[in-house]
Amino acid sequence: MIDVSFRRITLAVIILAGIILYSNTLNYPQFLFDGNMFLLNNPLFKDLDYYARLFDINDISSLDEQFGLSPDVTTNFMMRPVAYITFSFNYLISGFNPAAFRSVNITIHILNSLLVFACIELFLNVTQERTFLSRFSNRFIPASSAFIFLLHPMQTESVTYITQRFTSLAALFYLTTIWLYLIWTKQERSGTKRNYLRWISVAMLLLGMLARESLFTAPFLLVLLELTVLGNNLKTALRRTAPHLMLLPVIPVMVIMISAAQYNTAPSLHEAINVVNYVDFPISHYALTQLVMVVSYIRLYLLPYGQNIDPNPPLYTLPYQWPVIISALIIISMFVGAFLLYRKNRVDIRRVLVFVGVCWYFLALTVSSSFIPLPDLMAEHRAYFSSIGLIMALISLLDLLRTALGEKKRIGGMFVAGITVWCAVLIVLTYNRNTVWRSSLDLWSDAVRKSPDKDRPWYNLGLAYKTAGRSSEAVKCFRKAIELNPEWGKAYESLAVMLLHLKQFQEAVKVSIRGIEADPANPVLYNNLGIAYAEMDQDDAARQAFSTAIALRPGYENAMLNLDRLESFVETTAGRRR
Length: 578
Hints:
The structure is a single chain. By secondary structure, the chain is an all-alpha fold. The protein has 2 domains: 4-436, no CATH class; 440-577, Tetratricopeptide repeat domain (Serine Threonine Protein Phosphatase 5, Tetratricopeptide repeat), CATH 1.25.40. The protein is built from 30 helices and no strands. It has helices at residues 4-22, 35-40, 49-52, 57-61, 63-67, 71-79, 81-94, 98-125, 135-151, 156-159, 165-189, 195-209, 218-227, 234-240, 242-245, 250-263, 269-273, 283-302, 322-344, 349-364, 386-405, 409-434, 440-450, 455-467, 471-484, 489-501, 505-518, 523-535, 539-552, 557-577. α8 runs parallel beside α11 (165-189). The chain is elongated and about 90 Å long.
């Protein structure tokens, strides 16, 4: 039975704990990491008119060239308009006030935690065809799961990192879909027919699919819940979830159409799979590596240390490498163990939830951590929603262990004390982890310590030093990024800018020329080269560099202004120079 008074107290504490835990992040001023690319410098979400143009994919795809945007920005905008509309409302109401953006993120995370409690509570009570659970179990499993999800430091990347509202918002739609579906099921079984709840659930799923691609797995999870928690056969499960299953083509069709527009080619499944695979990982290598990554996320949830905004895991290329073999064995053991536990006694809902939780964890990760290559091999926010299944399975296992030790009040008190201590530790870890988001310097200094052999943390730390006015440190960071990745034109750009600022013009020429050798179609490098030559009074070389920059990017305003200034300067000083 649902304990109404306990529920009210628990929900109130979840809200209060979430507000207190994350309130200190409201004063953090920066839009960090790719917040500049997707928000600050993205004109698309600032004007609601662009949402009306989403029906013309070719039109939106052309805007990256018009505004000088990365293709990933326009692809993201087309794939996730529901998430972007929330950013638009934030911007239109309060401008780029980080506190307003983070307030929405925190609210979403708290709502997700409330829904974790509500959904697990329904899992335990949606059907009467189960072994009677004690009052302790009915309280312990949903409350413990919700609090661990709320307080865990692994969630900080999806809450404090403003751009990753994509992840938490998708989880909100995912959980709402499940919650409404279970309420509809429970009322149907009690003789109350409210089909509108079922269709609202379908609507939430569609909206979620337009917030993030991870909602593709939701219909499969509903089928799993039908077969396990609700105890229906496959035919019944497919019939009841048919409206949700009919939405499965939405995301694949969108990806295929958008990739065709971006690449200006005929629709292609291969191009669609690789639409954001800018690193060009082979699919087999990415899939092998993800076997290790999904186990790494489990480790981070069980032992949350070493969190990193920009991890640098190795790419595994062979199936017989030891980390791949060990990870595969762990995954197989989890599946087999959970299934055997479920098969042994299907009327004990806790055993069911262990199996469902394990399947939930891996199913929810299939979009980002299977065979579809993404630019980064690992990112903590990818495990945000999938962690619910992992946590639910773990807490259900703990409750099974408790009852195996005996239904004694003292034993129950020990388990409550253990969860309380665990939550207290998580609070401290989450607070500490959030401190690295106070500034770009804190965030990227932390990343450089943990990923010293990766170019991007060094580059971003260089940008942070540049913003802070610490030019010498910025130069060192950009040089390190180039040392790690000699083909990265952007790093040469930034290093040349800093050298120009330090009036080291000869060195700026050398760096720009090296950058052009690595990235010959980069107009910014030619513009920087032109500035350096002009400062050294090498007017002909400067004129040639600016002209090349304009040829590579017609209408390149900075290069055109620099060329005009050079010509004006030459005209006014010609007599004196002679």
